[in-house]
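Bench log, entry 3. Co-assembly request; chain sequences pasted below exactly as received.
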Amino acid sequence: MIITIDGPAAAGKGTLAASLAKKYNLAYFDTGMVYRAVGLEMLLNGYDLSDNKKAEAFAENLTFPKMMELSKNPEFRSLNGSRAASAVAAMPKVREALLQMQQNFSHNPVFADGSKADGAIYDGRDTGTVICPHADIKFFVTASPEVRAMRRFKEYQEKGQAANYEEVLEQTIARDKNDYARAGSQPAADAIHFDTSDLSIDEVFNQVCAIIEKKQAAV
Ligand code: DC
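Structure output for the full assembly:
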């Protein structure tokens, strides 16, 4: 079974995807990581974020183990890291270079320890449209920019990273614009929509599980 969860930053996709992966014993691919990895390489090597050629070269050479290694860097999910990821994700050739790696995972899904899984859950922006258009179930999860910015702000606070709410809100709106300007990042026509602004994590999880189980019972 392949499940995709797309939607804007901090809509609750990651938490939902990780809980679903655990419950249904699926491998999990957080596809934002591929762009974060390339963005971080740019930062670590001191390259300008508008240098398409350098970003393309990093994207072409990215491997799963390399991405996992980079994800241990504290900058990987920082405000700076997010900005860098969003910049490289807007480059069509970077996206093209990272496509195969993301699609291969659905043919050969593996858990974090390398063991084989029977299916996968993806989260990202274009997983139900470009990466896995034939996924069994597709979700599109969103929330208002204010709610999403507050969630991100709290995450930064919990990690002890410097941030202020206004700046996070501004960046959330800027990233939405950047992330949604391109083809493939709109919801798939057959995606099931969830607005999580007024729902708790448990409420979203329970509703999504009910849909998955109904779908499983029907096959
Ligand atoms: O989900 P995230 O915040 O970790 O994503 C990091 C960046 O990567 C974000 O700016 C959007 C981009 N992204 C994308 O363009 N396509 C995806 N499938 C996943 C993420």
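Residues 2-142+184-218 form a domain with the Rossmann fold fold (CATH 3.40.50.300). The chain has one domain: 2-142+184-218.
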